[in-house]
Amino acid sequence: MASASSGAAAFSRLVDRTRVPDPTLQRHAVAAFFRHLLTLPPPLPAAAHDGISSLLASPHAAVAAYACASLARLAVSRTDLLAPDEALPFLIASLSASPSPRLASCLVKAVAALVSCVLRSGPAGSRFPPHNHPFVQALASGADGARAELSRQAARMVAEGVDGVVGFLRPFVMFAVVRKGDAAFARDLIGALAAAAAAAGKSDAAVPVLKLLGESLLHFGRGDGEEGRLWLSSVECLVDAYVILLRKLAHAQRPAYDAQASSVELLEILLSQCSLHHQLLGMSCAVLRLSKYLFSVQKDLGLCYLPEISGVLSSLSCILGALEFESEQLAGLKLLAFLIEWRHENALKTNEVVHHVSEELLCVLPVINLVISPSRSVKAVASHVLSRFSLLVLELPASCSSEQQDISMVHHISRPTFILPKLVQHLWSQSSSGFFFTKYAICKGLPESAANYSEANYWTDQINEYLSVLAREKLTLDGSSSKTMSSAPISSLVSSVVSVLVMHPKLGTSAARSLGNLGASDSKLGMPLLLVILFYCKIMYSNDNLSANSLLSLLESLPSLATHGFVLPLALQLISPMLKKDAQS
């Protein structure tokens, strides 16, 4: 007991010496305090902990700053006396006391030094759970000067390649982007980490960091217009970082697949976010241009067209139909045209034989919808893309007869954007088998009275049955306004899938009927699907090798669209020249 009292008195005297007004004497007093700690047997007594807290809480900035640096050195060099994870609470507590900006910067530097020490000592990521994360706590303290230093220290750890840095930074980055009222810091943090990762130049170290930053964009930009602009600025930083990294790897003749695949995943995330959140829809033009820029860099560097781009095309097929302004529509069409040309050139360069459905055809419906745009520029680019689609469509029957499997679809569905391409590929290759899930899903949408309908041979037959039930319900609703319709409307995504299946040798006839039924069920789809039907009619009419039954089914589906007043005169105007040509021949 007497020993403990004397020890406490000794610590108290050492702390009292730091209260002199001279900074030089204060520094010597702090040094004397920590030299005394080195003479003690481990572990440090409670009086030593109290003394450390007193020094860090000193009203003299020089004392607190030198104390936090000395504490970090002690924890790094003498872990038996005070382990780094035991020293961190002292520093975090001082940050919570609203220190000066200069002292806050010193405290964050000390925290970062201790974290680096812990990470280098082994797999200690579990020591920093999200609820007790030192960087999260430092940011949450709100201390002036802490935010800028946190960004610098996080970037330093990335640049130095500290082991386990991605796992450590994940809770911190995610907390920063979801924290309300601090979007500017989130943008600065993403920019600093992206620059540090690109400067590292090592794919195995840079790609995980860039992937983390890409994932953080899923939770960023949901606020006001200013937050949306900061989100777009963060996107630009990430795209620039990928460009720098890809160029470094290409010039060094090192493998660039991981970096390229990660960049494609980023663009897929960006486009899907623009299509899902109306706050970001105004950023679509810039995102589409950045996407084309990043793909152009990959092509110029001689990189191959990756199968993962199917996810980008799936997102693009969704977003094209939602674009309203001419600049956005042009940017989307130019990106689509570039991807089609790149894939074609890559196939010629590698002598690749296409044995699968081109995911670009999922964009047929939105592109045809843009062909009738009042803008001459949009109409011209959309017509060019449509001419490329005509060539892709003619290759579809050959791909059906191939027994080879598309390597781009071997992987499992890891992200929602792969669902649509996977569905088209499955329907095209399996035709009459393997539809248990889709049958079950559609049956759930049917009322009980239609639950016992005869099993359809094809998926498109099930769509037709479902649409017929919708039509009957609609007629019933017209007579009884009190009843509510239980079935959800078919989305345009189903129309995009069906429009690809029109060229299928077995499903084509059923898919042609589905197009007419889909157009009749939704007035918004009436005009685009009419043009889709006419587009395929023209292709089939010009090629004798294609199925005449599918052409007849397409023509037979036109009357179902006549429920919309604008369809009949337009259809007669477009079909009459075809009939006259047949009569003359």
UniProtKB/TrEMBL annotation:
GO biological process: regulation of post-transcriptional gene silencing
Endpoints of the signal sequence: none
Pfam families: DUF3730
Superkingdom of source: Eukaryota
Family matches, as InterPro entries: ARM-type_fold (IPR016024), FOCAD/RST1_DUF3730 (IPR022542), Focadhesin/RST1 (IPR045163)
Record domain DUF3730: where: 88-361
PANTHER family: FOCADHESIN, FOCADHESIN FAMILY MEMBER
Name the UniProt record assigns to this protein: DUF3730 domain-containing protein
Originating organism: Aegilops tauschii subsp. strangulata (Goatgrass)
